[in-house]
Please model this.
Amino acid sequence: MANLRVGLLGIGSMGRHHARVIRETPGMDLVAIADPGGDRFGVAKGLEVLPDVHALIDQKLDAAMVAVPTVYHEEAALALAAAGVHTMVEKPIAHDVESGRRVAKAFADANLIGAVGYVERCNPALLAMRQKIQEGLLGQIYQISTRRQSPFPARISDVGVVKDLATHDVDLAAWVAGSTYEVVFAQTAYKSGREHEDMVTVSGRMANGVLVNHLVNWLTPFKDRTTIVTGEKGALVADTALGDLTFYRNGTIPIEWTQVANFRGVSEGEVTRFALEKREPLRVEQENFRDAILGERNDHVSMAEGVRTLEVVQAILDAAAAGEARHL
Model:
């Protein structure tokens, strides 16, 4: 079977990495790239840098990757859907919920694979975490807590920290919990003089009763990417910057010191750091997209899921603006 002919729209800070990974993915050939801003990272490697999505479509593509700023996602995705091109759009699916719904509907109506680039689902630590939860390692899940903190990235100008970073946590928490968000409350801050928020704290509850909280900002002078899932048998801690997963088991040795036992609730048990195969998440994501197009697997993040995540993200922003919880 011939390789899929793939086009890439946007070769900036994220697109340059997609260009490399598409070229390295078996079964895919990067045949065309487009970016009105040119090739500032030197990734074209002999390909003509086309001006827009329409010139990209003219190259007779099987699939496309959209890595332009969020405000342009809808226009590009709708053009690709109309042309019959399977497409993965970088997260979030679009700049607002209605736009996301239009994009998802266009791909569903055309019977095309539409995917959203939530690459954290392909992180080895989170893949292993989800598998071990499904195997019953934690028993009943009580709470999911995430931290996503770092300095401000120069690549972002069109959205705030909620749509850029917190969207990852919303997606992965629902995916890990196997549920949807039921209610959220949030507070945002604008500390760096930019138009959009640069700090958010979120608390909420899933439909299955799991509590969630997210701490996200662009104001921390180090990179923190941590997901903690607490259950009846212990806690799993994923460091997604390093791809590490650690299990903290509840203790089985009775605590005879009554005051300590009453204070702790559970005792400290064995700690296990798992040895994981650490493949590049972006490569796994591209393979999932390829396999979905070929009808082999459905491990990609669907556009319907992308819309649900955007609905939660919008509820977070609305809750912060109103100062009250939002139900979904």
Q: What stands out?
A: The mean pLDDT is 94. The CA atoms of residues 167 and 313 lie 6 Å apart. The chain has nine helices and 15 strands. The two ends are 44 Å apart (CA to CA).
